[in-house]
Amino acid sequence: MRPEDRAVPALAFIFCETRPHPTTTPTEWTGEARLLLDPPRDLLDALHAADLHDLGHPDDLSVQVSAETLFEDGQITGRTTLNAADLATLTAHLPDPHHARLLAWAAFAYAFERQGNEARFIMWFVE
């Protein structure tokens, strides 16, 4: 689909979730931060260009993210889940003014990973 044929999202929701690396007992994810990227169309187009769009959300979302999606009044589209390494791929498809922001997001996630945690980015759009 051509970028100009996609619906223009009104909002982009981006959450970073973390949890301790699971051992034998699964641990729950925790919402660490809500991140912003404006305009949301830039993120949507970059996700499509990087072939990282519509990857879906896992079943084990944090309580914070689950609540956000449950109480959203608008039409949720473009659900995807990325890790810090995916942000490098995504950055190449975003306009230059967004590069520092994505590098900061990756550094945030890597800081948690260096402390023995897993980190992921849960994203979706509202039309």
Structural write-up:
This protein is an alpha+beta fold and 127 residues long. 33% of the residues lie in helices and 26% in strands. It is built from 4 helices and 4 strands; from the N terminus they run E-E-H-H-E-H-H-E. The chain has helices at residues 40-49, 63-70, 84-91, 99-114; strands at 11-20, 30-35, 76-82, 117-126. The chain has a 4-stranded antiparallel sheet with strand order 2-1-4-3. The longest helix has 16 residues, at 99-114. The model has no long low-confidence stretch (mean pLDDT 91).
Backbone structural class: alpha+beta
Oligomeric composition of the shown chains: single chain
Largest sheet: 4 strands, antiparallel
Low-confidence stretches: none
Shape: globular
Helical run tally = 4
Mean pLDDT: 91
Strand content: 25-35%
Side by side, the strands of the main sheet go 2-1-4-3
What is the CA-atom radius of gyration, in angstroms? 14 Å
Helix content: 25-40%
* Cα end-to-end separation: 17 Å
Element-level helix/strand string: EEHHEHHE
